[in-house]
Design brief:
This protein is an alpha+beta fold. About 25% of the residues lie in helices and about 25% in strands. Strands 1, 2, 3, 4 and 5 form a five-stranded mixed sheet that branches. Strand 2 and strand 3 form a beta hairpin.
């Protein structure tokens, strides 16, 4: 489970520090109960319906991931989420 408060905290950190490997490392250290992934928005394949962001900010989007089974998958259910994907967007969304 990842709370809305935790998603907001992560979003604020990325807004202040920028989305990069250094920030991701700090997030992993600070919130070690969450699995973090960093990618480009176009790596997600929105057109295929594979993910819906739970939070959007300037330059990035946040997606929930469910890793309870043998394969990771996107989810919109924070109660089953085990990780966050931070996707850098080129369009400034």
């Amino acid at each position: 489970m990842i709370t809305a408060e935790r998603i907001e905290q992560v979003t604020r950190v990325v807004e202040r520090a920028g989305l990069n490997e250094r920030t991701l490392s700090a997030l992993r250290e600070s919130f070690n109960e969450i699995h973090f992934t960093y990618c480009m928005e176009d790596d997600i394949g929105i057109g295929l319906g594979t993910g819906t962001p739970v939070r959007e900010a300037t330059g990035f989007k946040v997606y929930l991931v469910d890793g309870r089974s043998h394969c990771m998958r996107f989810t919109t259910n924070a109660d089953v989420a085990t990780g966050l994907v931070l996707a850098e967007s080129d369009d400034g969304d």
